[in-house]
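User: Good morning. I'm curious how magnesium ion would be positioned relative to this chain. Could you predict the structure with it bound?
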Amino acid sequence: MTQETALEILKMGQNVFLTGPAGSGKTFVLNRYIEYLKQQGLEVAVTASTGIAATHMNGQTIHAWSGIGIRESLTWQEAKELAADGELHARYRRTKVLIIDEISMLDADRLDAVEQVCRATKDPFLPFGGLQVVLCGDFFQLPPVSKGKQHVRFAFEGAAWQAMHLKVCYLEEQYRHEDDRLKRLLNAIRSGMVNDETYAILEERVRALQSETVSSGDVAKLYTHNADVDILNDLRLHRIEGQAYAYTMKAWGKRKLVETLKKNCLAPERLVLKVGAQVMFVKNNFENGYVNGTLGHVIGFEEKTKLPVVKTFSGREVSVTATEWQLIDREEVAASIEQLPLRLAWAVTVHKSQGMSLDAAEIDLRKSFEYGMGYVALSRVRRLSGLYIRGFNAQALQVHPTVRARDQGLREESHQVRVEFSTLPEDKRQRQQVAFAGPIQKGNRYSTRKDTETNHSAIKKLRKKRSHAYRTWSDDEDKKLKREYGIGKTNAVLALMFLRTEGAIRARLKKLGLKE
Ligand SMILES: Nc1ncnc2c1ncn2[C@@H]1O[C@H](COP(=O)(O)OP(=O)(O)OP(=O)(O)O)[C@@H](O)[C@H]1O
Ligand SMILES: [Mg+2]
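Assistant: Good morning! Here's the predicted structure, ligand included:
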């Protein structure tokens, strides 16, 4: 499917699984859709499974947005307790669309937990409380982090996924990888057809690292393990001349709970910084202009407090102050830690690199331990000449057998969705898009002037007969529609009651999951 078709389908308000190989432009399409929704005045929750992935859309982690935080799952009772939080409740009520990128790294329990809170805050009878849900990612890439658990389920193995009736949009074009040999290498790994050429290319890139003088300052380093990332970062810090400043984490509360907090917080217990250090923020602070995953350099230290000043890659200067991570139990703070929300970032793990596009990278796959690890790491670069490999093991070239088995089915579903879309008359599609997001707003560059004019005059005419035609449905109207439909009112009667067309009633009933 092309990006254009996927975008049109998204605009119709459908629940979508947007997938495709690394570099096919999934996140690019999400960004276009987010821009469209904002111009239409619709509230959209922009999230991803990791902080860095979320920064590609100026979003935040799904954990932070949803309020589930470090919880791994939720009972219905717990979801209702969360929903009672005033601020969180208001956030969910405002939201019309929920986007989650890099869904392959979010496990089924967490997705189900988010779904429960959506239902607890919005409509308990609809999947995700009736939000439009857009799940985006590629299951050939990394699976959820297991943290010692025996069997971690993919998001598609959970109840929430099944309930949503997702339309699959499988993007087929390639936008990141520019040379054919790199494309062939990645396709071979993806399709489980690793061959002599695959090994020849990999070995060539191992030799390139040994023979070329790679300017190690500029090339991103990717490692499979956190410990190796830490070693490289410490080494790089050590090489910088200048005074070092150390910041030690403070902690309060029961030892076990403090340990849990420390394990889940990405800031180190002892952070050492110097001017020139490359750092990453590990917490969201929208007011101060950074989020979890924002990268930058230390450019100085405040004279009095000795706290660091960081210039982000986007050019913003931030005076960094300590922040708190808390564990709340029965509305009381049971444990808390305090540290600067920073860590060194010359090197990152392959997990954190998922979603990035890099001009060049030095990749160490000698200790790969997860399906998809090699595919993710190698697919970050745009061309082979920017790829330097320290080494690789057999696991690096493996992809998950379940994922490979599902792939053909997904492509077929996507084909079906494309056929349905292409046979849908233009005016019907437009009407459904307008029914979901309202008439195209002036200045929305995703609609031509002609579209806008046609829409406006058609809607004006229709509204003479049905004054609510194309208005966004309010929550109260939805409730009333469900009630009236439930007691057997026909579409014709409902159309008169709601001052809309019968087609609009049919579309809404379908959207609410009340009709096929
Ligand atoms: N239609 C397009 N026009 C121009 N550039 C594009 C287009 N689509 C994608 N790109 C660029 O191609 C690169 C890869 O796109 P993107 O990161 O969205 O891919 P992805 O499918 O999300 O990959 P991943 O699975 O690795 O997250 C980015 O640099 C993006 O800006
Ligand atoms: Mg992406």
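DSSP finds 20 helices and 20 strands in the chain. Residues 463-511 form one domain.
Let me know if you'd like a different ligand tried.
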